Amino acid sequence: MSQAAISGERELSGPEKAAAILLMIGKPPAARLLKQFDQPDLHAVARAAAGLGAVPASTLDRLVDEFATDFLAGADLLGDPGQAKSLLADALPPEQIADILGLAPVQTGQPSVWRSLAQAPESAIVALLMAERAATATYILSRLDPSVATRLVAALPRDRRNAALCGLVAPLDVTPLAARLIEEALEATLKQAPTAAVDADGRSRLAAIVNNLDPQEAEDAMRALEQVRPKDAAIVKTMLFSFNDLPRLSERARALLFDRASIDIVVMALRGTDADFRETVLSSMPSRGRRLVEGELNAGAFAPPQEVAKARKAIAEIVLGMAGRNEIELGGPEAAPSP
User: Fold this and answer.
1) Spatial distance between the Cα atoms of 281 and 270, rounded to a whole number of angstroms
2) Which of 103, 148, 213, 326 is 20 to 30 A (C-alpha) from 32?
3) pLDDT single digits (tens) 308-318
4) What's the predicted TM-score (pTM) here?
């Protein structure tokens, strides 16, 4: 009769003994040993580890003696499927572990849609984020790698960027159903990624054209676009800028503008504007330059309308050029009324 039977201890099979020893020595050395097992033995030991259950410390002591190892068992040991998976983690891929233990396949990493999205053209992703609701856009950004999300957030207009950043502090809980619906919608969008990139280029071209139209013509064009393609119109609006939009710019942006625009152009462009508009615009100009501009404007010299329009267009082109080089942002409150 065996010693285990005499003492009333549980009698372990060979695979169970091996599993108990491997669990005791820990993952790194166990992983090295497991790589030496053939497939039948590996299956037997893994299944034994999954069903091992609680093993008394006295039994472990006996096992240690049997294997002639220098090990001191200080507590009982528990073998279960979680321990078995942990034991095999460094030796085998998750799919093979699941197959050995008879578990459901393990999902590793992010769904492929998120990996594919991270590799899509940046302009297409930005357009997608602009077309979605703020909460959905924030959820999408939260699922992307921080380095990818950083580039996308930087490319968003100021209002959308700030909303996304505030949302990322504490993203809303998304139900599994909602998450699946978002992923399915993203998959459908990614299939049209080339088209989305073309659409983004088309919006940029349209914005450039509208920016060169007279204000009334530009307004008519945008109204027509809103009726036909409202989502595209919302995106194009963020790319538009005219002289009347100067109050929308930040003080820093206006200061940079006045570094690039000559005093003569600024004076001509401000001819015919009201006092509030001038005050807002000139508040960012250095005091010496501002006195020169105000002095010229107060002189009341006649300015041909075509020259005024030309100067205002030149100001707008300077601003659009700086925005195109990411030196400034066009985002801000709604445009001020016409001066």
Assistant:
1) 9
2) 103
3) 989 998 998 88
4) 0.42
